[in-house]
Amino acid sequence: MDFNASGSTVRELVNLQLQGGHGLNGIALTRDGSKAYVYAQFDHKLHVLEAIGVGSDSEVKVKKSVTLADPVFPAEVEMGRKMFFNAMDERISSANTRVACSSCHLEGRDDGHVWGFPDGVRVLAVTDHDSTEGLAEALDEAGRLGLTVVPGLEINCDVEGAEIHVLGYLGDWQAAWFQEFLRAQRAERVARVHRIAERLTELGLPIDPAEVFALAGDGTPGRPHVAQVMVTRGYVRSVREAFDRYLRAGGPANVPRRRLAPAEAVAVIRRAGGVPVLAHPGLADRDALIPALVEAGLMGIEAYYAEHSAEQTRTYLALCRQYDLVATGGSDYHGPGSGRSNPPGTPAVPWSAWQALQERAERARRSVEAR
User: Fold this and answer.
1) pLDDT tens per residue across span 16-28
2) How far apart are the first and last CA of the chain?
3) Considering the entire predicted model, what is its pTM?
């Protein structure tokens, strides 16, 4: 057996062995795939994992653990770091000292993790899809912990042949009209789950919508929850596979929803005095829409994104300079089991992005007041 041919991701195999908040911060495989070397920064150890056996008899074991350095933080800090970062749900530490990270999860409530940065800079943007239900709790907890939480949300939109997401930061998210808009968006999400379930049944992959709603809990159900149910039922091996094969835009199990144009989402966010930002544009490949969205009131582009290539990041940074937009970034973290390979806090985002975001928010507020 080797890690690459096991049917599981390397991260899944490592997490099965290294549980309990080790702060995993790097994995290297031998050329033959039989061993993995994992650095755990909270333990200051290098763990050597070995893949043994073939097929159903195969297993992964920790062969050796080597301490590389003495603890660098006081004992109570080391304990807190391990408590808040659990390797099993991929809350893995970031060593970046100047980062604006985005906690993007569908549950619509506080996900219980805290990011601490060595130089005292701590900024977390909470941008749930079509929901602000988790903001009050997050802001309250942030005050207690000395953490800066940026209130936001992410609105799903559609264009011909693709799905576009628009982020909104620092708007009047408590406004009655705004909450009514979000309730309508969430109601459409619920209806869409039923339509996706029907399509999956037609494809010979039946699921019960009740399973999806149970998984979402009090939050907003969506395709990530459908994907997790598909994994549980054994139709696919991972959330990523569920999207790639069935749930992606244009996929056989994806179904249209009530169409909301990106320019409409931008207008809604601007009306609320917020900063609209085009989310992970490299995924949709619809850069030709950016000039029109700027005309509609777009104020930023999520240039720093884990799935953007270096060339794409440079392109979006250049567009931000060309159109006087703020270049933001985020991890797009959707919680444990989401299939994301990058942990919260990555990729690194310059501190200047947070400063520019605040300046754009002030512009947006003045624009609303001037109406």
Assistant:
1) 445 444 566 667 7
2) 66
3) 0.61
